[in-house]
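The following record pairs a protein chain with its ligand, NAP.
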Amino acid sequence: MTIGTRKLGTTGPEVSLIGLGAMGMSDLYGQADEAESIATLHAAFDAGLTLVDTADFYGAGANELLIARALKERRRDEIVLSVKFGSRRTPDGGFQPVPYDVSPAAVKDRLAYSLRRLNTDYIDIYRPARLNPDIPVEETVGALEEMRQAGFIRHIGLSEVGARTLRRAAAVAPISDLQIEYSLLSRGPETSIIPALRELGIGLTAYGVLSRGLLSGHWTAARHLDAGDFRAHSPRFQGENLRANLRLVEALGRVAERLGATTGQVAIAWVAAQGDDIVPLIGARRRERLAESLGVVDLVLDAGSRAEIEAAVPAGSAAGERYAAPLMATLDSER
Ligand SMILES: NC(=O)c1ccc[n+]([C@@H]2O[C@H](COP(=O)([O-])OP(=O)(O)OC[C@H]3O[C@@H](n4cnc5c(N)ncnc54)[C@H](OP(=O)(O)O)[C@@H]3O)[C@@H](O)[C@H]2O)c1
């Protein structure tokens, strides 16, 4: 098994066909095991996965420190680090309400801390996790461009912004990729965002390709969720919504069986098959889950299989929004 590579946009870096999202190793998905997380990072690097996504606010810095531990045993130039900033935490582990802190001063301040925690002198892709509607995107991207020119970051990325904002940002500086939720259950980007990305030569790193575990085939309605787990508050994981969504997953499971793959592999492979400008991020935090995800490398979906998959989980069939209402309201991509 060899993981292929994809280039992020016309100006971005070349990265592995799939990237690893490290969020769940420190935050939001219940208890994680630190030693297993480090082992998973190494297993990913050993398998040829080069892109790792994190944020300074995942575990309030703990996620960056975790990645730094794994990086100590690696050549820095073999790993592409994608780091987000802008969300603010509270001492009890919560998140502060909006606005996101993406002022030019915050860009430099947050970057200084991330470089230190990651024990590196540059970040490959640096991006605001969300925008602040009171701060023009030109100002945030302008500060990022200053940091790029100074060599502290190699590329500028964005996250969860819509087509109009993409165009404004791209007029200020080269943008490598947009990180956005994209899966069989979240097909919103197809309407105007993906066409804009292609027009502008910007890549897409897709998160939530398993809809935060829902599409993995491992989720059950009986699974207990701690209050701090994102999914305890996610509309798609509640009551009747969850039951309806699991019926879609069952249908997807039947297609996967015919293809000789697991449900999760088919969900990841479907995202990867939407274009060679798209890189799915997988949220594996255990080696077992990573190994399953890496199985997509050998899974080629022809047009017939893709049609079967889309018939099992039709566009727009998800029950419930992808975020609770207050968080949906912060998404420039949903305007
Ligand atoms: N830009 C943004 O706004 C944003 C938002 C969210 C996430 N992200 C980034 O995207 C990354 C991925 O997002 P996500 O974690 O929500 O994605 P995801 O891959 O849709 O969901 C991950 C969840 O699925 C479970 N899972 C079950 N089977 C799996 C398998 N075979 N492979 C991988 N995971 C499996 C995971 O592990 P367990 O079974 O161990 O629970 C975890 O709970 C994050 O780590 C983060 O870096 C970005």
